[in-house]
Amino acid sequence: MKMINMLRKLYGLQLTTCVMCLLILTQPIAYGKDNPKITFTFKPTNNLTFTQKFTSIREKHLGSTGHKKEETKTTSKITYKQTSTGWDVIIRPQESIHIRNGEVVKNLIQDLISNLNITYKLDAQGKILDIIGYDELSKVFKERFPLQAASLFSNMVKVETLKEREISEWNRRIGNLIGKTVSIGETWNHDEPFKLPNDTVLTYQVKTLFAEMKPCGPQNQNQCIQIIQEYTTDAAKVSGMLTDMMQKVTGATTPKDEKKNSEPDKNPSSIQGKVMRLIDPQTMRIYDESSERTMRVEVDVPEQGRLPSVVVETQKYVNEF
After folding, report:
1. Residue 87's domain is classified under what CATH number?
2. Residue 303 falls inside a structural domain
3. Is residue 1 part of a domain?
4. pLDDT at 245 over 60
């Protein structure tokens, strides 16, 4: 408390919750008697089946008046099954709901994707080798739509792109940690590629903090590690490509001559986010996970001029074992 008061007097600042958290995190945190090293081990239980509930909310803001909100809720049954060469992670959808601006709507393509039975093929150590199931999309399109429409949808929804994103997601959440050893309070800094919907690849600067051990699992019998990740992009590199993408998302257009004559951005484009994940390092089970990503850019809107555009995406996973 004396230190906080001293800082207030010296700098005249209100210490925010985030700053106080950083002060706390600089102190040693005990894990066990000697704060030993923690090694992440992929060790699932054969035939383990659990329910995964996923919620995604996407809010688009354009200027002071434009606001759209889309929400997706899915429920899936997930089973880990041991094979002769490793593991199958079988994902069977149970329910999918789409809400737009407060009203339940149909999202035909997303519903078709969400209703596929997907299987992750892993080796014995948990390394992802392949994803089976998305190849059925072409067949589903042909069964549900006329030939021309089926061909159009197949070109819009690329199977390889879906697989690449799922593999990247597995590695980001689980695969990249397997076999790694960390201590509580340890921080990693690294670059990570991220593919935008238009297939443009950005590079995130990612900071990963292995924050603390917390009880988890049935009756809190297990010990999980709380992982906090924060990431951002280089504004100078991302500005142009993000502006073009956001123009398409918001429906705004920018004539080429306006781009040339416009003043430099005072508030450059950016993507930043935060992820919190509670995972059992002895099995790699994730019990709770939430994330938020914010994309900011200024776009030129006909008859309205230059407006700030912000897209905020929040996601929440809850696994019920």
Report:
1. 2.30.230
2. yes
3. no
4. no
